[in-house]
Amino acid sequence: MVLLSFRGQRSAGAYPACTRRPGRLDSGMFEELMQVIRTLRRRCPWDRKQTVASTRPLVLNEAFELDEALRRRDRKAIAEELGDYLFMGLFLACVLRAETGLRLEQSLETVVAKLKRRHPHVYGRLRVSGADEVLVNWERLKRGRRQRRGLLEGVPVRLPALQQAQLIQERCQRVGFDWKTAGEVLVKVQEEVGELESELRRKRRSRTQMAEELGDLLFAVVNLCRHLDVDAEGVLKDANRKFRRRFEQVEREFQRAGRNLADVPLEEMERAWQRAKRRRPRRRH
């Protein structure tokens, strides 16, 4: 299921742009983009040689670049990266048409029919009490059409591990296999920390067992993120960015003093690190 949300400014009583009456988007722009893609496929040697295999990583790359722009909430970057993402999706459709005969119209017809079928509370007479019931009904409809497939079979195996863990947990939550509160999940995190500590106290540590305990701990932490409505992959990226910014400040401080960081005692680096922590990052405008 595709769930989209955007925390943008809007006037009181206004609806998000995606809920307004269709036709506001100039269809000529869409056709112009399709014409550009067709022209590139005919006349550009690089675009002409692309295959489904070579286009797949390009689509993934654009998805990650869009995700990064969304994480930064950079409207200019979002506009650019969303355009690139849409371009790559349509470019892939053209490549698929050439290699497999699959038409873009077939994909559009399929997704429109699926969305209408899985939203009977909108396109039918079903009544729902809220978003949670929509998700439960969505999974029930999916299982009805895919009786032989398990709940987790559709989780992409090549997703980054944190995203994969969060998606697995979300799927299980839809059928009620979940903790009720974030407090319960925090207890589970503490339990996993205790199990790891027990393994570390052993005289003969098992690397295999430690790795398993660490995996369980990471999975539990992702679960806690989910219950707190936090994107685990995103907050870890934020933490990585913050660490890099502070460490680069430490590097620059010693470089200005003409010192090699490898020769600086740990205690001195720690003091520089604390100074970097106290500096506020520049705000984006």
UniProtKB/TrEMBL annotation:
- Which molecular function terms from Gene Ontology are attached? nucleoside triphosphate diphosphatase activity
User: What Gene3D superfamilies would the database entry show?
Assistant: MazG-like (1.10.287.1080)
* Coiled coil residues, start to end: 186-213
The record, for InterPro entries, names: MazG-like_dom, NTP-PPase_MazG-like_C, NTP-PPase_MazG-like_N, NTP_PyrPHydrolase_MazG
Q: Which GO terms describe its biological process?
A: dATP catabolic process; dGTP catabolic process; dTTP catabolic process; dUTP catabolic process; TTP catabolic process; UTP catabolic process
PANTHER family with a match to the protein in the record: NUCLEOSIDE TRIPHOSPHATE PYROPHOSPHOHYDROLASE
EC annotation from Swiss-Prot or TrEMBL: 3.6.1.9
This protein's species is candidate division WOR-3 bacterium
Ordered alphabetically, the record's keywords are: Coiled coil, Hydrolase
Q: CDD domains of this UniProt entry?
A: NTP-PPase_MazG_Cterm, NTP-PPase_MazG_Nterm
Keyword Coiled coil in record? yes
Q: Which NCBIfam families does its entry note?
A: mazG, PRK09562.1
Q: Where is the NTP pyrophosphohydrolase MazG-like domain?
A: 50-122, 188-250
Q: What is the protein named?
A: Nucleoside triphosphate pyrophosphohydrolase
